[in-house]
Request: fold
Amino acid sequence: MSNIAVVATSSVTPADVSRYQFGSRFGRMDPVCQLGLTAVEALGVKFGSRADIGVIVATNAGSLTTDVQYWRTRNEPGGVSPSLFIYTLPSSVTGEIAIRHGLTGPNLCLLGGCDQVLGEAAEWLRHGEATGCVCVECDVVATDAGELAGVPVVARAWAAFLQRGGGGIPLTENDRDLRSLCARVRA
Amino acid sequence: MDQLVTDLKSRIIETLKLQDITPGQIDENAPLFGSGLGLDSIDALELVVMLEKHYGIVIKDIEEGRPAFASVHALAEFIRAKQPTK
Reply:
């Protein structure tokens, strides 16, 4: 993996969201998309609308929080919010990142595959499917969703931008997940 | 300004969770979709639900919805036509 460079990494919580300007449509997004977009923004990389840059998102909880909200409002008069429905798709965060940054390369959403993100990205880069890859791990579980599903409450996202060649810290065989990679880069 | 138009602007912002936009910034004659506010098909569905919830008006099909959603002003006229007392 020595020819693959880690250009930038980030680690964010909901407290970081307000540091960036996302435009008027940010408010309709679910917390997973908002935090995922924030993690990518925190990379500080200008991608410049590229067809050769891919996006990979991994999430353990997926759209659990939005699913619970959807379920709780399903019998409301007038029906469930249509925009809430679209965010019951865990892959929507992948799309929102691609739309915001004009990235039309390959994209992938891994459910529970947080230790596969870097490996998948490296494969893309190695085989020329992309020259760069935005990698994101994002999990948001609100209190009520956590209690209902019996999973820990969390709101955290990590991101990295990998590139084939160029400057940056070399990606190693030991780099599996974004949390560890971000910690290594920080150290 | 027309009270219904003012109300609609606030409801649109609230319903669509538009950030950093005030009612005063919405031109009631500007297109809601494409240019203007730049709304999309999901927003259209949200507005259909909002009309039913807040005004008791059901839009049956796209032919009825298209002119109604041309602008805030057109939407206000549409509501008035469906609810003559408002």
